[in-house]
């Protein structure tokens, strides 16, 4: 069980939800009704699932693929600890995961 905490763009806590190992962070966000579009539903074609991961949690995640890095280059408000929520799969050893939803997202689909 992972306690996922979603923060707003201004850094205030929005919601805390419990999630199971194997769940995609994007699905957890959707279930929690977080404002994360995920327009391409996880096929890495949009970057609207961009989240900013807390630095301590970021280091524990498996590294992003080159494809993910390339897409993040075009995401709005990107930071050093930015990731795509569709590419983060929760594991049993993640006790907590803190992520911030950026102020705006860029959708590269259909361009
Ligand atoms: S949902 Fe489109 S890149 Fe993650």
Explain what you see.
The chain has helices spanning 25-31, 55-58, 66-72, and strands at residues 2-7, 13-19, 50-53, 82-84, 96-100. The longest helix is centred in the first third of the chain and has 7 residues, at 25-31. The protein has a five-stranded mixed sheet. A hairpin with a 5-residue loop joins strand 1 (2-7) and strand 2 (13-19). With 111 residues, it is an alpha+beta fold. The protein has one domain: Beta-grasp domain (Ubiquitin-like (UB roll), Roll), CATH 3.10.20. Helices cover 16% and strands 23% of the residues. The structure holds FE2/S2 (inorganic) cluster.
Which small molecules are bound?
FE2/S2 (inorganic) cluster
Instruction: Tell me the number of helical segments per DSSP (H or I, 4 or more residues long).
Output: 3
pLDDT averaged residue by residue:
93
Widest beta sheet: strand line-up: 2-1-5-3-4
Strand composition percent = 15-25%
Estimate nothing, just give the exact number of structural domains: 1
Q: What's the total count of β strands? A: 5
**Inertia-based shape:** globular
Major β-sheet profile: 5 strands, mixed
Report, as a whole number of angstroms, the end-to-end distance.
Answer: 38 Å
CATH superfamily placement: Beta-grasp domain
Rg result: 13 Å
Name the CATH architecture: Roll
Structural class, from helix and strand content? alpha+beta
CATH domain topology: Ubiquitin-like (UB roll)
Quick one: CATH class?
Answer: Alpha Beta
Low-confidence spans: pLDDT under 50, at least 5 residues?
none
